[in-house]
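Reopening closed ticket. The problem is back. First fold of the pair:
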Amino acid sequence: MTPLDYYHQQVESGVIFRDPEQLVVIQSLQRVHRDLLVEHAKRSGLFAFLHKPQQIKGIYLWGGVGIGKTFMMDCFYHSLPFTNKLRLHFHQFMRRVHNRLTEHQGEKDPLQAIATELSQEAMVLCFDELLVSDITDAMLLGRLFKALFSKGMCLIATSNTAPDDLYKHGLQRSQFLPAIQLLKTQTEIIHLAASRDYRLRHLKEAGVFYTPLNNESQQNMEKSFDVLTQGKEIIYSPIYLNGRSIRIIKQAEDTVWFDFDDICRVPRSQRDYLSIAESYHTVFISDVPAILENEKDTICLFISLVDVLYDARVRLVISAAESVQELYNRCQFIMEFSRTQSRLLEMQSQNYFVSEFNRDNG
């Protein structure tokens, strides 16, 4: 399977929409894919010991948020048939480099040793969201890129920033310029100038409130999480708020996913919800039940949670047993919940989440 085959497969299955600007990028990825297969055959063939690794020119894909850069890189990565490949978020990559620097501390040229290890692990390196803001990283990257490329590493990278604008106002930027030059010579620079935000398009069409609780709702939750987080590092360990541990389903940077029982059926305070609203722009809550008359603490916590998220203009994605109108009715706190109903309906509206996307993306 080639990147183009994978792309068409995703279009036909309804995961994405066909986009002519994306297809131009896919054609360039086709070229890299073809060249890598030829090079891989030479490195792993009968006379591999006679073959000097050749560096295949990669791709640096940059453009605005939400236009499918990560998805196209994943089309390329998943279509590669061999295992000596590596895909990381850029921050994950740099964390790995710093960990290995510690392991090689005291050696004459630790970056060469790290480059050797990485080249033995993979012949193609894909990393997402290349962004340089740390002076330590900036000072390392020029020498590290040079070492990696000298060992035949192919680089596929996505970024919101053109190469010439990386680390633009950083301290001692002159020492980072060799890294920029290497990116410009060792990768094809492609600007994806699409104006659509495919995350927003997905939410407009799929919605943000899924009912009833069935496999389709679960799949919609998973797909929405994947679309909104776009390949960011996913963490499954509990989070800590106000000194207490809260179990989560998963999180990725400013997006977090809770099960309803963990967020509204155990003792919580408004301080917990305020901390969530301060830390995350998008909150997923799955398996919201129809709340019974005797569940006074549960409905009060749910009302408080929605109020806090609404006031902070946090996006909310929910899977629930019933529609908003049927989640809680004819019970003691129905007057209080009527405001929550209104807010939940507004938080599903296009105007609400469009304004929040605009806020997040400047």
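Second fold of the pair, where the issue appears:
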Amino acid sequence: MQMTKADSLALDRSICEDSLSQFVRMAWQTLEPGAEYIHGWHIDAMADHLTAVTNKQINRLLINVPPGTMKSMMVGVMWPAWEWGAKGLAHKRIVSASHEQSLAIRDNLKMRRLLESSWYQDMWDIRLKRDQNAKLKFENDKGGFRQACAVESMTGNRGDTIIWDDPHSVESARSDSKRETTIRVFNETLPTRLNNPKESAIVIVMQRLHESDVSGHILASDLGYEHLMLPMEFEPSRKCYTSIGFEDPRSEVGELLFPKRFPKDVVKRDKKVMGSYATAGQMQQRPSPLGGGIFKDEWWRYYDLLPKIKYSIIIADTAMKTKEQNDYSVFMCMAYGEDKNAYIVDVIRGKWEAPQLKSQLISFYNKHRVNVGLKLRQACVEDKASGTGLIQAIKQKEKIPIKPIKRDTQDKVSRAMSVVPIVESGYVYLPKEGSWVTDFTGECSSFPNGAFDDQVDTLTDGLDQIFNTRQEFNARII
């Protein structure tokens, strides 16, 4: 017996109700006519986690996947359309945002086009209201709506679901002030846009761009988000597991995420063009390259005991403010050996107000002054902002030799690059035992995409004082 159109629709409807992935397959040609649908297991993984949100198993979801893997189409278009139709949740109110309003509007328009298609209309009886059917916001006849906005302007309606798709652009992620603005919106505005603070869902989908991007903030703050993290090339040490029973099915180092769309030769080509930092963040969901970026982990040398020292200095990098999101102040003791190597002896850092800053410098200086083998000469402090105040305070009442220093440029990356050859050539030694060493090398490894760069600034100043100004550095083949 031949199946009628009604029977066929009923079967398709049943398949879609059971599976978001199947809905995506069936809806694809409506949104992308003529384009071949290419399936990957990662689509099933995203669908399973979004379904868990729909079923109220989880209400906070963070997805980190590479660009080009259907993340926006999946999260921002297919999933809410599936909820409205196949799951009978047309009353749901959705607020979607991206770093640019135009991108949020793009997904609004795609979803609206899908809803108004003959395929969707034949499947589900949902109509859009004529008096509220604009590109920024449209409503349906069941009480649901979808509103698009930019991340920085999340005002207006509250939602049952809030979708953030790429809250940072590649460029804005490099700006401290723009990242801080986005984090502030996340912390202060986003929670107020929920209809039900206890049950309403927030879904964030993005590629990693910086250690302190929204993903980094969520993970560092332990905010209760389920984390689906799928790098382009598999790294066994970072294998993803989630509470719904998912685990990354890959097992071999470098195994590709979506080989049908991104085969090995394409990935290799794109990595070469993108460079190590963009590859680490956007492809691997790890804001810093393995082994370090500008400063490679293998460049550091280590010592058990200090050799004979010509002299040592204290280098101070003082922060502008003491708020939690601002940089630390750092004091570093760096020695110059008779073997013409630099030895970092000690590092401390903290968030200190002016009186504490002065007392910390005095204490740190005196700690190393009493070690006669270090032959401590002076303290070098950047003559700017809180550093200027510290210089003046020390000169007025203390007997510490102080040297104000001026940085030729405030471009942190350019300054760091000027001392990279010194570190790469094996002139810089760290103690094998030191409570501060892991944090120090970690910050250097993640620079300039790390959460902090205060120790890198201090390192740069110290090496500049010891090598560049004295012209005692020559590249060494190691």
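Update: turned out to be a display glitch only; the data is intact. Residues 297-468 form a domain with the Nucleotidyltransferase; domain 5 fold (CATH 3.30.420.240). The mean pLDDT is 89. Please close again.
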